[in-house]
């Protein structure tokens, strides 16, 4: 295992993912983790992440100085390198020229950490401070025009620092550098594989659950589906999957999901029909947040009633993923007060969230995984691509894509328009070019003409976006022909819609959903 001490970098998770790509397990830990705690975790090496502070600022986050006595290889990245230098007796000062963006690396020592990294490689820089004096026994491995100490090492103690960010994709040879650290400096073995994870997770679930029963709320997304497969493999019919049909899913999806699980995967699913109940909750509701709250609340009601009816259960399975459990990077410091403030802003809008006082114990076998790793696990367990690579779909579903009041009639209109979108992006082969692609129904009406008739009906908005993680997004430059086909079909086939418009707003300032 490689331990990453997080000093508040936006890239700490990315470092963990890059290391895991080399088939070595890694975890992001708070920079406050002590040397003693690290010793218990028994890592093969440590990475000190970047961070938004200056090492010489008051209240700058520092690591336990005893980690230098652990005898472990350490790689400091950006702030992490500066901290290493400062703690070991070197000097860090504000740079004359701050360096942001790409820089060309000139390699002075092509061995050790920089084996297989080419001189002239482009590396991603983002720093206003620089190392101006190395600690004893350190040498320069590489420099750039503006940064004399771009990569440094104390070969004997396997301590390394890089001013650039090897973890970002723009850094050429960044992955080679990470591999060098992981395999040569830390002498790790490639043990973090999907098969090894699955085997271990099944063993752990069996040991933990024993002959008790587990309840799982299945949504049809990749996380809960993977969880269902994994648990079914571990405990068979002692797993009960409950699918609550709120009535806000896409056309045909509830039926398809239940059929797939029962008939193809032979995992039985309790299909709870609750459409009327949810719709009644939204009667007269216009405000998006009230919609979410009402749906979330109703979900819990139904879930509790059904679990009582089907139970008793000892365990509740949850698809918690690693980004949800990472010790948060609370390392930014308010210069006025010295108080630490969270730098990570992550809105969590899962309506499937269950209250803490439910009387179940939790089973969370995916809690060590990133999303891309869940996909790999799902695939290796036999989950079909249509689930593994499904676009994200919000918990409140179509209810937050109907602007204004949600009624049965409006749900039907949107479901039909959305169906056309889905059919056409599948048919055209563009499905995987989009992060999400969907329709939104507006409550206003506009004038149109069909045949010799004047129409006065609703517009549908097409929202096709590209994104890496849903936190930021750009509107997709979808082919005109595809848009044209979709527009024609919607206006002709979906009663109540006479106009189709395309949303060309990025996020920020827009959000992906309209509500
Ligand atoms: P926004 O609209 O915030 O969406 O840019 C970012 C991502 O989150 C999804 N989303 C939700 N998911 N419950 C969910 O489970 C919600 O209430 C919710 N609202 C937005 C959205 O589809 C996108 O992937």
From TrEMBL:
Q: Which Pfam families match?
A: GATase, GMP_synt_C
For the protein in the UniProt heading, the enzyme class is ligase
Gene Ontology cellular component annotations, sorted alphabetically: cytosol
Query: Matching Gene3D superfamilies, A to Z?
Result: 3.30.300.10, 3.40.50.880, HUPs (3.40.50.620)
Q: Which of UniProt's keywords are assigned here?
A: ATP-binding, Glutamine amidotransferase, GMP biosynthesis, Ligase, Nucleotide-binding, Purine biosynthesis
Reactions catalysed: XMP + L-glutamine + ATP + H2O = GMP + L-glutamate + AMP + diphosphate + 2 H(+)
**Which molecular-function annotations from GO does this UniProt entry contain?**
ATP binding; GMP synthase activity
Domain of life according to the entry: Bacteria
The positions flagged as active site in the entry are 78, 165, 167
Question: Pathway, per Swiss-Prot/TrEMBL?
Answer: Purine metabolism; GMP biosynthesis; GMP from XMP (L-Gln route): step 1/1
Quote the function comment for this protein.
Answer: Catalyzes the synthesis of GMP from XMP.
State the name under which the record lists this protein: GMP synthase [glutamine-hydrolyzing]
Organism annotation: Acaryochloris thomasi RCC1774
User: Which gene underlies this protein?
Assistant: guaA_2
